[in-house]
Amino acid sequence: MWLFLIHDRKNQRISLTMSRVTRKQQKNLIQDIATQRMWRLFELAIKDYEKHPDRSERYVQLIRNISMRNRMSIPKEIKRSICKHCYAFLVPGSNALYRLKEGYIVISCQRCGKKMRYPYKRLK
Ligand SMILES: [Zn+2]
Fold first, then answer.
1. What torsion do the CA atoms of 18, 20, 23, 25 make, to the nearest 10 degrees?
2. 4 C-alpha vs ligand 1 centroid, how far in Å?
3. Which of 42, 34, 80, 35 has the alpha carbon at shortest distance from 59?
4. Separation of 113 CA from ligand 1 center, angstroms?
5. In angstroms, rounded to a whole number, what is the distance separating the alpha carbons of residues 52 and 50?
6. How far is the CA of 123 from the centre of ligand 1 (A)?
7. Angle value at C-alpha 66, between 63 and 70, nearest 5 degrees
8. In the prediction, which pLDDT does 120 show?
9. Cα(80) to centroid of ligand 1, in Å?
10. What is the CA(114)–ligand 1 centre distance, in A?
């Protein structure tokens, strides 16, 4: 039996008060919530991009804050939509170019002009 409180104010601080929950479980739980938040923000960023690209930028910022605060990495599907140089929210065909090259996916950010390269797994 454990008690568990989440304060979701504008700074999205999560505080958990629990008993009989190991640190590892506690960490997993916090990370689960953080991951869910990141996905939710990512969905919002996609949804708002067309009409409010500035909002998408803000969501990207929030995703980064969550990942930094919880010292965890951003899910790779989300990470690929964020420019790692200027943190722009990348949308293929709008501000980003996606190319496949020798087992890598090369994403060019149209805002800062830099490129990112991620290994690309071919389906067999
Ligand atoms: Zn960029």
1. -90
2. 39
3. 42
4. 6
5. 6
6. 29
7. 145
8. 81
9. 12
10. 6
The pTM of the full predicted model, rounded to 2 decimals, is 0.77
CA of 90 to the centre of ligand 1 (A): 8
The CATH classification number of 1-79 equals 1.20.5.420
Provide the token pair at 53: 């690209």
pLDDT in tens, 25-60: 888 999 999 999 999 999 999 999 999 999 999 999
CA of residue 11 to ligand 1 center, whole Å: 26
For residue 116, give both structure tokens: 């990112």
Question: Would you say 115 and 108 are in contact if contact means Cβ atoms under 8 Å apart?
Answer: yes
Q: How far away, in angstroms, is 111 Cα from ligand 1 center?
A: 5
Q: Which residue spans of the chain are classified as CATH 1.20.5.420?
A: 1-79
Q: What is the pLDDT of residue 1?
A: 44
* Euclidean distance between CA atoms 21 and 24, whole angstroms: 8
